[in-house]
Amino acid sequence: MFVHQRMTANPFTTTPGTSIPDAAEVMTTRGVRHLPVVDDGRVVGVISLNDIRAALPSKATTLSAQEATYLVAKLNVAKVMSKPAMTIAPSALLEEAAVLMRDEKIEMLPVVDGGRLVAVITESDLLDAFIDVLGFRDHGTRLTIEARDEPGVLSKLTGIMGTHHANIQHLAVHRGHLETSVVVVGVNTLNTDAIEADLAAQGMRVVGRNINR
């Protein structure tokens, strides 16, 4: 799966010269926690609600509320934003975006094509993709199967599904550190009793079953 398949196009943005209160208002009214900072179509930074909170005067300050509000109003996005912004291309694998966001502890990546902002990819986009890949909301049955981690096992599993005319809609494998792996298979049938019996006969154990009618 690629970034362009899951990214959010036409994102809300701000500019380096925008005041902090105005940027905060955009985030609040639009229900977002981050804004790409764009100058002439190019991403020059990212500002988040956490960046804004960090820029606010401490509660321990001796400033009056009016003085604090005045000082914050004089700040602009350029003074508070995180820069340089980490970005990713639409053609990148979704896993690349996930690893970058996880390693750098960020919740949103601007998506840049030809040097210009075209979209953003967020934690919510990644979670939606994860749910879709595992087929948790799709009609049918999602089986979680414990199987030996050895050649030919997956072929046996898919062969059993074919024997019972069950269409595999989703398939994911998690390889642990033991001799077994966990295989998640989403099929388009609600009754999997015969399938499970054949799996058990091949040494595969169904450890979870989710049925969506």
TrEMBL record:
<dbReference type="InterPro" id="IPR046342">
    <property type="entry name" value="CBS_dom_sf"/>
</dbReference>
<keyword id="KW-0129">CBS domain</keyword>
<dbReference type="InterPro" id="IPR002912">
    <property type="entry name" value="ACT_dom"/>
</dbReference>
<dbReference type="InterPro" id="IPR045865">
    <property type="entry name" value="ACT-like_dom_sf"/>
</dbReference>
<protein>
    <submittedName>
        <fullName>CBS domain-containing protein</fullName>
    </submittedName>
</protein>
<feature type="domain" description="ACT">
    <location>
        <begin position="142"/>
        <end position="213"/>
    </location>
</feature>
<dbReference type="InterPro" id="IPR000644">
    <property type="entry name" value="CBS_dom"/>
</dbReference>
<feature type="domain" description="CBS">
    <location>
        <begin position="81"/>
        <end position="139"/>
    </location>
</feature>
<dbReference type="Pfam" id="PF00571">
    <property type="entry name" value="CBS"/>
</dbReference>
<dbReference type="Pfam" id="PF01842">
    <property type="entry name" value="ACT"/>
</dbReference>
<feature type="domain" description="CBS">
    <location>
        <begin position="7"/>
        <end position="63"/>
    </location>
</feature>
<dbReference type="InterPro" id="IPR051257">
    <property type="entry name" value="Diverse_CBS-Domain"/>
</dbReference>
